[in-house]
Amino acid sequence: MADTLAQVQKDVQFWQRLLTFAGYKPGKIDGVNGRKTKAATHEWLNDAAHLKTEYGSFDDRSERNIATLTPEAQRAARIWLKAAKAVAEAEGYDVRIICGTRTYKEQDALYRKRPRVTKARGGQSMHNFGIAWDIGIFKGKEYFGDHPLYAKVGKLYTQTPGITWGGTWTSFVDQPHYQLSLYATSTAARTEFEK
Ligand SMILES: [Zn+2]
Questions:
Q1: I want to staple 134 with a disulfide (CB 3.0 to 4.6 A). Which of 99, 110, 116, 182 is the partner?
Q2: CATH no., domain 5-193
């Protein structure tokens, strides 16, 4: 999985789309890492660095995953994570972001996995647009897939402007999942992303 930005960038065409989607100007989406794409990448990284300074930085795993999000989502993720960590730490736990952006190819590979882990193909998950992240509850190295803290830190989404929490969904409750509310559906995001 793309748990680093470098892995996302390796799929140049995907990366150019993501840059465009996030408001940068990498030029033609042609799969070539040319001058304009490099300049847009530089701008993205610069903005991301500023956000890190402004909103604070976290554990390595969270940082690697946050780096794969669009800067707008990075801002929201940092604001939310700071509050969530404080709540979890008060109970002796830690919250980490364990998944950020997946390329279409990565999503398709995940879709083919058996037993089934997702119903979403490439372009059908909010994780394919750089605006969604999943969290894990930890105590040291131990990971808890199921824990009351998922619900507790989830409620903090109301204090973070512009985000939606998967724990509020009625058809498929997804407590570890957060996303920007900018695009309520992946279809709307895809229309924008694939332009
Ligand atoms: Zn998710």
A1: 99
A2: 3.30.1380.10
Q: Give me ligand 1 centre to Cα 157, in Å.
A: 15
134 bridge partner residues: 99, 177
Which pTM value belongs to this model? 0.95
Going from the Cα of 62 to the center of ligand 1, the distance in angstroms, rounded, reads 14
Residue pLDDT, tens place only, 48-79: 999 999 999 999 999 999 999 999 999 999 99
Q: Give residue 35 CA to ligand 1 midpoint distance, Å.
A: 33
The parts of the chain modelled with pLDDT lower than 70 are: 1-3
Distance from the CA of 34 to the center of ligand 1, in angstroms? 32
**How far apart (Å, rounded) are the C-alpha atoms in residues 40 and 58?**
25
* Cα 25 to averaged position of ligand 1 atoms, centre (Å): 27
Please state the domain extents for the chain: 5-193
